[in-house]
Amino acid sequence: MKNDPSFIIRGYQKTDREAVRRLCCQTGFLGEPIDPVYEDRELFADFLTTYYTDHEPESSFVVEEDGELCGYLLGSRKPLRNQLYSFYQNVCLFLRALLRYGQYNERSRRFIRWLLINGWREVPAAPRRTPHFHINLLPDARKISTTRALLSAYFSYLYGCGDKRVYGQIVTFESRRGERMFERYGFRVMNRAEITKYKAFHPGSVYLSTVIKNLETAEPLRVSNR
């Protein structure tokens, strides 16, 4: 499906895995590379992408430009499976991070300490038993048309499976991804919490917002699977 002459939205494929992981790290720090905050790209990508790419790939979509992946929406419509996997994964990743702790620089150690002390406190509440998603785009793909196409593809997929609601947890700061943008796509903001892990790197307040949408209708869309 083409919503912009230069971009193609299609279903995720196994061959996209490394590109998704790379893009996750390229955009992990407020849309910029995660490296200044946390140097271990392997663990960072494992935490944010592995469930979606390895255990529920059918619920994700990507953006391509000239054959190169430049954005993705990773989704899940199996909340219980996702929650069980996340619990197991978090324990494993935490132990791996502790084993590497002595090799990290001070900024990465600070990030690990934040996860231990404040990370779990700064996650806003989210609805249970509801499909969810998160979305990342490289700068050139951050357009209303591209975002709308990704969301529409996912909404149509969920609606076709009989799901009635969807939520996302999105990092918001200053004018980027504000509440008005979510309202444009039919979301409402349930709640938000300030996250402090970026205070040493970003002068303004950064929030994690939970947004939710009712899937009352969804137009059928043709999504490329090439």
Characterise this structure:
The chain has 226 residues and is α+β, with helices and mostly antiparallel strands. It has a single domain (8-214), classed as Aminopeptidase, CATH 3.40.630. Helices cover 36% and strands 22% of the residues. The protein has helices spanning 17-26, 41-55, 79-100, 106-117, 144-160, 179-184; strands spanning 8-11, 61-65, 68-76, 132-137, 165-173, 188-194, 206-214. The protein has a seven-stranded mixed β-sheet, sandwiched between helices. Helix 5 links the parallel strand 4 and strand 5 (165-173). The model is unreliable at 218-226 (pLDDT under 50).
List keywords for this structure.
7 strands; 226 residues; disordered C terminus; alpha+beta; single chain; Aminopeptidase; seven-stranded mixed beta sheet
The low-confidence runs, each spanning 5 or more residues with pLDDT under 50, are 218-226
The CATH topology is Aminopeptidase
Q: Would you tell me the structural class of the helices and strands?
A: alpha+beta
Which CATH architecture is right? Answer: 3-Layer(aba) Sandwich
Q: Major sheet: size, sense and barrel closure?
A: 7 strands, mixed
Strand order of the largest sheet: 1-2-3-4-5-7-6
| Tally of alpha and pi helices | 6
**Count of folded domains:** 1
Helix percent band: 25-40%
